[in-house]
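Amino Acid Chain and Its Fold in Token Form
===========================================
Scope: a single protein chain, as residues and as a discrete description of its fold.
Amino acid sequence: labelled as such and written in the usual single-letter residue code.
Position: the record begins directly beneath this header, with no further notes in between.
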Amino acid sequence: MIPEVPELPTQVTPPVVVLAPASVLGVDDAEVIALPVFPGVPPTTNQADEDAADGEKPVPLLGPGAEAVADALGLDLLGVLEAERATGAVGEVVRVPVPGGSTAQPALRRVLLVGMGDGSPTAARRAAATLARVTRDGGPVATTLAAAVDDEGLQAVTVGLVLASFAFTWRSGAAPFAPPPKVVLAECAAERQPALDRALALADAGWTARFLATVPSNLKNPAWLAAQAEAVAEAAGLDCEVWDEHRLAAEGFGGIIGVGQGSATPPRMIRLDYAPPGATRRTPTVVLVGKGITFDSGGLSIKPGEGMVAMKRDMTGGAVVLATMAALEAVGCPVKVVGLIAAAENAVGGASMRPGDVLSHYGGRTTEVTNTDAEGRLVMADALAYAVEKIRPAAMLDVATLTGAMKLALGLRTGGFFASDDALADLVQGAAASAGEPLWRMPLGDTYVDKLRSTVADADNAGGGPGAITAALFLQPFTGGLPWAHLDIASVGDSPSENHEWTTGPTGWGARTLLTWLGSDDPLAGVGA
């Protein structure tokens, strides 16, 4: 019997981020004013005094709005920085109490001087994430961090503010914290609104992917994930189609059926379609495939107990695809995009697939299952084969928390990826760097293909080490020779601690990368050439 579905409590919502051309002093309800601080230069700057300046401590530079705030509140902000030995380094925060507020801003209680480092987008995103953390459980914030940087920096500030505010709760009482209800980006002209809109789309996608990956699996199953996709499609104006277990079986999706057959909650495949305004039959299509394993016990090749604890997030790839599809219009994606999410629960039961079973995938290719814990590749293989036959896109990209081997190779702060097309690899890697989700390209050679040989089927699903490479090689025959990238984000699927914009737990890694890539002027430049 399937247990009753629990009800998710009301969740924390991100801060509302808005632009304002006026000064931070014009935000009447601000409880906090946050001003940027940059590393400065030694106070002695002429050539004759160069020797005297040697070893002198640089004087930090205050950014926009500081002079007006100092004058209005009667504060010596440079003196405060000097007394606190501030340097302007990223993440450094100096707190200046304003206990009585001011006539114009009676709610004001603090001025925060926030280190911006070199002012790069990465530094700006990290500085804003620090600001988000130190203003939790407080009132509205007015800041000139975005006024101190260009539009790329404004986007980074917004992403940092929003994503460092993420929390998930299933407590009987209040959430662990509340983000500030509103953050006003002061001294930013209205002309910068498009940059903010794009930034909010990226941040919201990251938040959504993180939320979906964090939902516990006693609520989250393939049918629940399909329902989330249907709701997203309705809100975003996407076409949505869902395959249930009967249709999957009838149409030959043997990998998805095989993985999901041991669970009380049957599998699903989800298709979402986006077309840009003015699209025609000649507009190229990109296919995104997401691994949607809503819980991974390992199946009969069962994981150790500690290895299962984080497996509610084994559908991060599917969450990333879903969140990306929802935001394509907001970032102005110029190509058609089809998102496919192969969703199943890899459970232990009397009907579970066994080591030694042979599965027939969509399109007819067969796999001998020698390890039921190598299940993600089985469901994604079906989706990739379907995309090749039914869509024939200009490029395909899949994203999955696929192999522990990637974590061993790259640690916990860099994702890995493979690509069959150099132009596609460059586009994806460049987007990842810009988005703050770094990816390292791994080799996709044929050195280890023999490890995938089976005596009874077309391939063995568990070819052994090097595990990330053999997993990618397993998937490659299902891509039909089309330009293809495979993102293995198992290394970054969870953040072990709060770190810049990352909060502890599932990360939703990849949504910002995909939207940065697909929201570029030409996401397929040079691909397939």
